[in-house]
Amino acid sequence: MNKNAVYLLLLKKLEVDLDVLQRAAQTAYEASTDKENIAENKYDTLGLEASYLATGQARRVEEIRQALKNCQAMTQAPYDTAQGIQVGDLIRLEAVNGNEQWVFLAPDAAGLKLIQDDQTITVITPRAPLGAALLRKQPDDDVQINVGGTVQTFTVCDAY
User: Fold this and answer.
1) Any idea which architecture 90-159 has in CATH?
2) Which end of the chain, N or C, is less packed with Cβ atoms under 10 Å?
3) In this structure, what DSSP letter does residue 12 have?
4) Contact criterion met (CB below 8 Å) for 145 and 41
5) Would you say which domain of life the source belongs to (predicted)?
6) Is 35 exposed, middle or buried (0-12, 13-18, 19+ CB in 10 A)?
């Protein structure tokens, strides 16, 4: 698996998401300020609802813009065995039941799903329990996290 290709895919996905959301936010803003949406009585809330939508989308635009900025600023370096897993690393994990998963440890954009070489890669951050548990780990190390009172164990198979 090519870590640099995954990183570029992450940046591209954030750029596309930002563009789509900016257009949606602009549309919602225009709807909220359209003279046809001025309330005619106290039950006419179309303009108010459009305003709430525009506000929420503007916040989301800013979140994605910040995530893109943080990910662009992330240094891309090869996996360093002396430091163990760090932000910017691509990791292959195996659960105790044998299920395999790929994660990309990034400074932001948690939860984003990427597809590379027919594999789904989940973006996680050090703020997530799994991300925090992975920091400084090496291949063949086990990590445990507690999710809803259930302990989940993973083995680090590879780190790139």
Assistant:
1) Roll (3.10)
2) N
3) H
4) no
5) Bacteria
6) exposed
